[in-house]
Specification:
The protein is an alpha+beta fold and about 475 residues long. The chain is about 15% helix and about 15% strand. A five-stranded antiparallel β-sheet has the order 7-8-6-10-9. It is globular. The chain starts with about 80 loop residues before the first strand and ends in a 92-residue tail after the last strand.
Length: about 475
């Protein structure tokens, strides 16, 4: 797309020419959540997103078509003109031969790419159509580490139909999402913000489909959470999923690719006496890698659940283990350090197999010579943020509201919840021991009890809700 394309999003101002792009991101429920004042983030995480400056940045212009491959078939370069129509002589009638399209340097049809245009001031991007949204900081937004399939608790009949929907599709989930039987207001807000993001000409056929719950779940933020976005050009869907987080004063939401990406979070461990420091995180990461290498079942699971494993597939995943510390409150006067374990280069699992693999790791212990034995936090101790639904922090420590220029809900909303971290997810106890969909109807299954069992045993995330 050139800078003079009338379909630019929105039109470029002639006085600005510099280019900046929005970074791409990937990458459960809560009964009670802690207050912001009851928690503080660890001072020594392994990675930090640099603070965004307050400088006014120039307009963002759409990029030209990229050289990425598309699903369209390749055509061979031909120096001779291609006829619009040729007639066969076998009695089959007339056969249309399409004109050959311009090919890129790789000999493939270029993919159209859209980018947002706007000015950025103090972390807020203002599009030319007036829409204000939080600009992604350097390094991108925090990627919510979901512990459920986006399909969880969507009625099977609807799942079957949505899978067959033609064209590009994506999921959208609200901040602090919960299931709504009447989603009219939510759909109206989402349709409005998406239209402003991609341009009205591309949104004429947009469909935002709210889910129908398969069964009643007695959870504070019950699922399904995700709505399906369809009816848009592929480049518009790509724009939304590359944006990932959209925080405005009217609505804050997350865009997720239709094929849900793998998380990188595995578990959170505690009961160790390491001081909270970058060096401690590195030592714990190496300790975890050693335990995984010494456990034959961890590597065996990888090699038996992916296509064409190589001699280095398992070792590459284990070598990518990373640890980040988090300071939480056990009371208003006592703090506790815990450590999140991530696999930054997970094997090419299906989502189901990744959750099973992480459940296997959650069943392990991580002994050290001088600092105690690390134990995964399971059942009620498993974090689940009520806002972004990530498993790697409690609600009061959600990093998104701390983003410069954040226009979405603040962590002050957590003040309505209890401050004890151990109660952060006390009603979120779905099954991880297979895919049995036991009934959750009736008060006898509320909270910790259900036919599916508590979040215990290996302590893996919920495995219900995978599409059939």
């Amino acid at each position: 797309m050139s800078n003079t394309d009338p379909d630019a999003i929105p039109k470029e101002k002639k006085t600005k020419k510099a280019v900046t792009t929005a970074p791409s991101t990937t990458d459960s429920n809560s009964e009670t959540t802690p207050t912001q004042e009851a928690f503080s983030i660890g001072n020594h995480p392994t990675t930090h997103a640099p603070t965004q400056t307050n400088d006014i940045l120039p307009l963002v212009t759409p990029l030209p078509p990229s050289s990425e491959d598309t699903d369209e078939p390749m055509s061979s370069p031909n120096t001779s003109p291609t006829p619009l129509m040729s007639r066969t002589h076998s009695g089959a009638g007339t056969t249309k031969t399409p004109q050959s399209k311009t090919l890129n340097a790789l000999g493939r049809i270029p993919k159209k790419t859209l980018k947002l245009q706007g000015e950025i001031l103090k972390g807020v991007m203002t599009l030319d159509n007036g829409l204000k949204l939080t600009s992604a900081p350097s390094g991108g937004f925090h990627v919510p580490q979901l512990g459920d399939s986006v399909w969880r608790n969507i009625a099977p009949s609807l799942q079957a139909k949505w899978v067959q929907k033609p064209g590009a599709k994506a999921w959208v989930r609200l901040y602090r999402a919960k299931y709504e039987e009447n989603a009219q207001s939510t759909v109206a807000k989402l349709r409005n913000v998406i239209t402003q993001l991609i341009g009205a000409s591309r949104a004429t056929d947009i469909i935002i489909s709210p889910p129908t719950a398969d069964e009643a779940l007695y959870e504070r933020f019950s699922q399904p959470w995700h709505l399906l976005v369809s009816g848009l050009p592929a480049e518009a869907i790509d724009l939304l999923t590359s944006l990932a987080v959209c925080a405005t004063t009217d609505v804050t939401c997350f865009f997720v690719p239709f094929e849900q990406p793998l998380p990188t979070y595995i578990c959170t461990i505690e009961n160790m006496t390491f001081q909270d420091s970058t060096r401690s995180n590195l030592l714990i990461a190496e300790l975890v890698r050693k335990v995984l290498r010494d456990n034959a079942e961890v590597s065996s699971f990888i090699n038996s659940h992916i296509i064409a494993p190589t001699a280095t597939t398992a070792s590459r995943a284990i070598d990518s283990i990373r640890v980040s510390s988090l300071n939480i409150a056990t009371s208003r006067s006592s703090m506790l350090t815990v450590w999140n374990i991530y696999c930054d280069a997970p094997p090419p699992f299906s989502l189901e197999d990744y959750y099973l693999w992480s459940a296997l790791i959650r069943s392990l212990r991580f002994p050290s010579d001088d600092y105690g034995t690390g134990v995964p936090r399971l059942q009620d101790k498993q974090f689940t943020c009520a806002g972004c639904k990530s498993l790697d922090h409690p609600t009061g420590l959600c990093p998104l509201p701390a983003t410069p220029g954040w226009l979405g809900p603040s962590n002050a909303a957590a003040k309505e919840d209890l401050s004890m971290t151990s109660l952060d997810t006390r009603s979120n106890n779905p099954s991880h021991n297979g895919f049995k969909r036991g009934s959750t109807r009736g008060r006898g299954t509320r909270g910790r009890g259900s036919n599916n069992g508590p979040r215990g045993g290996r302590g893996g995330p919920n495995l219900r809700g995978f599409k059939p």
